[in-house]
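Quick sanity check, DoxX family protein:
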Amino acid sequence: MNKNEFGHFILRAILGFIFFIHGLSKFQGGISNTAGFFDSIGIPGFMAYIVAGIELAGGIALILGIGTKIVSVLFALIMLGAIFTAKLPLGLLGNGQVAGYELDLILLAASIYFVLAKESPLSLENKLTQSKAN
C-alpha cells in the first residue's frame, strides 16, 4: 500500500461517513420535517426519503468500498440538486445566518473524484473481486 492508496481510502471513508451522518440526521430529526422542507423549495416531499436512504446506505457502502462509482454518481446528483435548488441563492459562503454551498461543493468534487478514479485496493469490492479471480 502506498500513500496515494491510503489517501484515497481516507477520503472515501470520510466522504461516506459525512453522507451517512447526513442521512441518519434526516431520519432522526424526523424525515417528515425534511419532506416538508423539500416541498417548500419545490421538490416532491417523497424525494426526502430517497435522498436520506441514499445518503444512509450509500455512506455505509462508500466506507466499505462497495459500489463506489455508482454511489458516488448518486452523491454527486444529490449535491447538484442541493446546490441548485436550495443553496445557490445563498452564495458560496451563505448569508450570515445560513451556510452557503461551500460544503456541498467540496462533497460534489470528492464524489466526482470517486466516479473518475480507479478502484482502490483498500476496498471490500476489490477484495471480493480478487478472491473470485483466484
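Posting the structure with no commentary besides this: The mean pLDDT is 93.
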